[in-house]
Please model this.
Amino acid sequence: MQHGCAHSDLKNSSAESPVNFLRHTQPVSKEALQDLVQTGRVHSAVYTSSEIFELEIQRIFHGSWVYVGHASEVPVAGDYRLRQLGRQPVIMVRGNDGVVRVLMNRCRHRGAAVCEVEAGREKFFRCWYHGWTYDNTGKLVSVTDPAGYGETFPTEDYSLTPAPRVETYRDFVFASLSPNVSPLEEHLGAAAPMIDLLVEASPLRQIELGAGVHKTVYNGNWKFVGMDGYHPHYVHASVVAAWQRKSDSGVGATHRADPFDGKSQTFTRDLGNGHAMLDMREHRLQHYAEYEKFLRGLPGGPGYIDALYSRDGEARAKLLLAVAGDPHVGIFPNMQIINNHVRIMVPLSAGRTEVLMFPALFKGVSPEINAMRLRQHESFYGPAGAGSPDDAEIFERVQRGLIAELDPWVDISRGAHREKVEADGTIVGHISDEVPQRGQMKRWLQLITAGSEN
Ligand code: FES
Ligand SMILES: [Fe+2]
Model:
């Protein structure tokens, strides 16, 4: 198990980021960008302008850390997943040497994608155009009819190009097309201990994201997704009502006491660097006894509880069990850990976004506990879920509304007068306040105006 940040093999990295070649003089000045994000309000162009979207791709998705995937998705040598760094296609692949790499999915001959299947296991990637063949570490191992290149052709210089920076935190793989980003651990900052809340909920401190993926595409901006504690009683009114009635499922047990009623010990928290959470730790602890009773009734439940108590002591074990792997945290710009899944937001255009949801299972618990986690996930997410289709619908309504430009400001001022900075530097507000939105836009503005230097 990997704990902490690990640097990838960078031997093949070029000093220059490929993204530098994509830069072009853009017409939006720094001052104009700064005008888009004002105290408590954001201009709708931030969500609707294709010019702004291009800058986001270049400066945020191609210029800073983005989440690519989890090592448990590629457990065996040769396992791979196709992913995107912004709009650039990459292969996350575990090589025969056991190292997980992030390689550009682009043949070094004339540029064809060398892998077309979304997920699989391969010893080699053979380009379909002229047959150049790479092993699963990205090394070019064979060129069709090599005599055509003479004897001095430097095959070793034609490996699949790795992302200039790849680092992992507890098996979560992040990459950056810019070599100039700060170390991942610095980027994650106060959000790292929230990722720990998911990982350490497994008795083996290992999670598995290989159960499959729910995918959805909505016609709305990527920044709409998540970390809003103001909407559940409206968008999810029917689900909240069901939670109140139903205590015989994990969701019922954790949510029976409504975390969004405005009176609970639930908070919004800006963790810095654009990361933010709906912090329900206190609330879950207050209602832990009920959840433990539910968990004890599941096959393997008592053993799971005992395992965490003996491993971590009562206080930490209670917290981990109560949170149940759900820190409800967003890692800017494209990752969230919400309820029982890890989520990737893929920006397609200013008004179109794909969301990939990977249920997270715990290693070291009974199949029944993991099955319960999956059933919980399905109850809210996915095409037949009771919750996420409503979120997608409201995001599309927002995008449609933002077309009206006479008064183009989006208000994110809620709770600004009552937010507090805690000793660790994080900013805390009421669960319904727009602390996360302000935190995300602060980071957005920083990256969009500074290019890739962050
Ligand atoms: S483009 Fe891949 S072998 Fe020619
Ligand atoms: Fe929602």
Residues 189-450 form a domain with the Naphthalene 1,2-dioxygenase Alpha Subunit; Chain A, domain 1 fold (CATH 3.90.380.10). The longest strand covers residues 341-349.
